[in-house]
Automatic annotation (TrEMBL):
<keyword id="KW-0964">Secreted</keyword>
<feature type="signal peptide">
    <location>
        <begin position="1"/>
        <end position="18"/>
    </location>
</feature>
<feature type="domain" description="C1q">
    <location>
        <begin position="157"/>
        <end position="294"/>
    </location>
</feature>
<dbReference type="InterPro" id="IPR008983">
    <property type="entry name" value="Tumour_necrosis_fac-like_dom"/>
</dbReference>
<keyword id="KW-0732">Signal</keyword>
<protein>
    <recommendedName>
        <fullName>C1q domain-containing protein</fullName>
    </recommendedName>
</protein>
<dbReference type="InterPro" id="IPR001073">
    <property type="entry name" value="C1q_dom"/>
</dbReference>
<feature type="coiled-coil region">
    <location>
        <begin position="31"/>
        <end position="79"/>
    </location>
</feature>
<keyword id="KW-0175">Coiled coil</keyword>
<dbReference type="Pfam" id="PF00386">
    <property type="entry name" value="C1q"/>
</dbReference>
<dbReference type="GO" id="GO:0005576">
    <property type="term" value="C:extracellular region"/>
</dbReference>
<dbReference type="InterPro" id="IPR050822">
    <property type="entry name" value="Cerebellin_Synaptic_Org"/>
</dbReference>
Amino acid sequence: MLMLITWFLFSVPLSCFAFIPDNTEHFNSVIGELTDRLADLEERLSTQEHINIDLETRLKVQEKRNREQEDLIKALFARTCITSKQAAFERQQDAKLHKNSFNRKSSVDKEKTESGSSVLTTFEKATVSEKGVNEQFVIIKHGLHGANRSMKDVQNIDCDRVAFYSYLSNTDMHPKPNQTIVFDHVVTNTGGKFNFKTGIFTCPIQGVYAFSWTVYCSNGGYLISELVVNSRSVGDMLCSGQGDDNIRHTSSVAVVELNEGDRVYVRLHPIAVLNGVLWSGPTYLSSFSGWTIF
Ligand SMILES: *[C@@H]1O[C@H](CO)[C@@H](O)[C@H](O)[C@H]1NC(C)=O
Ligand SMILES: *[C@@H]1O[C@H](CO)[C@@H](O)[C@H](O)[C@H]1NC(C)=O
């Protein structure tokens, strides 16, 4: 037993010494390995730093592009749109106008119920015409999601596309030169920019618009009408019933670029001699219409 303990006491340190060279070797190899890995990591870190710098640069370029695109989108919308508040207000005006034009003969009760549905109809019309715009908004919303800048500005903008159609409710037996034709019976006035009391359409926002007008003239006579932007004629049309024993009509179309506030109307030629009657009746309506193209 004693011998065993003695052997153990001696053998342990001996065996420890026996391991020392092995451990050092292992330690050195571990250090070597760690040094290599550290060098590798340093290299990777350096590569990563370069990648980061590259990404930062690209991000800045992308952010700049996003801002430019947003500005472009805003400019486009500013060109063709106004705020939804204003559009809603105009729709209300339009609904009132619609009600006034069509419900005059209705009884008070009927008017009460119909005015509600008239407002609804107008809103439905506006909704349909703005459907395309809403689709655009969805695209833009998604497009700008990443940028997340001034989203409220874009969301609050609503397009102001207008369209009107109005006809002359009565024949004018004595049309005079330079007289504005007041197409007084409004059928459509989406956006409320056509004034049926003056016959003048006022452009709500810069854009391209189309106008069409139809004039019935009397048998044996003729009328020259003009489409006027502010005071400049942009289209002249002769309606001649000469040589005929019945009424005749002509129509014309014009596409014009307008600025906000431009006034568009149809007038009779300022100096040409007119010889005829400006007809309008249940089966032969002289009319004026216009709409936003873009
Ligand atoms: C977008 O910006 C608003 C503040 O204007 C913030 O509250 C919101 O968390 C942002 N959304 C994202 C997805 O970054
Ligand atoms: C036509 O009417 C406009 C406005 O009412 C007026 O400014 C213009 O001088 C008139 N032209 C002629 C030829 O009478």
